[in-house]
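Follow-up to my post from last week.
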Amino acid sequence: MSAAHPSPSAALPARSRLAVATGRAVAGASQLVHFGSGSVIGGRAALLVDRDLLRHLTRGREVVLVSATNGKTTTTRLLGAALGTDRPVVSNSLGANMTPGIVAALGPADPAATAVLEVDERWVEQVLAQTGAGTLVLLNLSRDQLDRSQEVRKLAERWRRALTATPPERVVANADDPLVVWSAQVAPEVVWVGTGQDWTADAAGCPSCTGRIAFEAGHWRCTACDLARPEPHVTVDDAGVTLPSGRLEVALSLPGRVNRVNAAFALAAATALGADPSAAGAALGQVQEVAGRYRVARLGGHPVRLLLAKNPAGWHEAIDMLTPAPAPVVVAINARIADGHDPSWLWDVEYERLAGRLVVATGERRHDLAVRLRYAGVDHVTVEGVEDAVARAAQAEGHRPGAIIDVAANYTAFQEYLEMVGGPR
Amino acid sequence: MSATRESAVRVGVLFPDLLGTYGDGGNAVVLTQRLAWRGIPVDVVTVAAGQAAPDSCDLYLVGGGEDGPQVQATRELDRSRALHRAVDRGAVVLAVCAGMQILGHRFPDATGADVPGLGLLDCETVRVDRPRAVGELLTGPARVPDPDRPGATIDLGELTGFENHAGRTLPGPSSTALGAVEVGEGNGDGSEGVVCGRVVGTYLHGPVLARNPRLADLLLGWVVGADALTPLDDREVDDLRAERLRAARARELAPRRSWRDLLRRS
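User reply:
Got it. Predicted complex:
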């Protein structure tokens, strides 16, 4: 791939070079007036100059795409670290995951660097067609932003169509998510990762035939057609990952079961691309935070840890990461366009599991959360601003003086709090 | 129906694995807790796809879902006829979105072909050449005919929720709309929801019973008698309702959306 077609920047068409320059100028101007990093608006400006910029920026380049409902930013970061052990890597590491954000990341980058790109699940078709990526990593599909993504099954159909139209050399995919399996199985080569994920609420109906999917421990199959769990090539356990080449102990800095799964995907993809397993595994352990997730900082005069949880499947994993009860927790819910305008999904989260502690509800939709917590029988209060919410949590009976207070927020609330503690880095 | 019950209220949740995409499972939580807080025993019977639906429940919940699972759920209910038998002997049904479409005479599948519904609600759902209806849905003060007192109606106040559907539903002559749309799309003809006796259909998610406790108590009252429903502390719901009514009327689907959000959206 990239070795066979070295792609110096001079090979970029003049129009694309002008597009990149325009994008950087616009991004710089946007930064000057404090509109955030400016990468997205810069990318949009660049695409106005050269509509095919993404195609030009990835021609001859080794490209890996990562998509999912949950875990795509983290897995992209981990995979970038793993591949970075033996080659230059460029990544859209701050989560700007549609075409404008991707071209903004690639524009100024070393043309020989491997591109490890997070892609919004609705943009896979377009980005795959434009980049002709050699490797596609598909983690999971579940309900998220129902008002925008409409139906999760339709996303699976779009993924399947994308893989038929532009087949990559290989797909690394989740063997335990029926929607992902059905999408990925059309690819010429699939590395199946056994994740042991137990979030099955979005896959009861078979994506292939609408029959019923039967889930048993460690297996699933459609009761009406042939769709069934493929035998995984890669599996994950409490302390490591088993690759086709053997088992590897992995000591992660990131918390939770779900991040061990993300690490398994990163290792599966990196080793399929030729990375040395032990070097890659060691690099994963060096990743401490991902675009601000898990950062410990001071907010409202108290130490806090920022967690992102933006949909039921994400919360399912996040509740396990929280400091156990009776430690209080601040939960922030917004319903802006990037969160989805409909927070009904709060009722698909097992908030009953937060019982035994005080939950301080904040964010623009704290009243929706308060009603949910009342029906869940969870002790709670609502507080408007996050700093006051943290201060209120610090007065909770279950709070140990000086202990780090968990702040779990959905997307735009998380971004807002991250800006308050120094922004992404 | 009797105000003093010896046995627990049986709530049947039909196929939440097929029809639970939009948080409608919360309706079962709301009903269960509103009975439990009043000391009324309750049994929730969750019927997964592939299991036989019982015909012996007092109250059934059918939620919203996607096209494929919607057809599958219809197939199962049509085959077993359990819901038909239950409705015949006076059981209460709340059917939301895809659930309401299933209970009507017909609805379109993913390809646009007509699928025969269960015929428990006098309405039919059609595909229209209009965008999917997505957003806050608010009705004016809603009134429902009292099935026990012909001519009388029961006042539910404004109904608030979130709608997300492609089809539009035409109420038939023997049904009543649940309310008149103030903000949003609803059935598509200015009305929202369909009521036939004790069977209630609606496009409101939220979940609808979390945002509209009077509707929850109407359904429960049909089972245990309105007298058994002592008042509850709904102040937090009142706060939520006040906020959502204000937001819907202000057409404020994106609270405090700024230029920064638009730029970050990427």
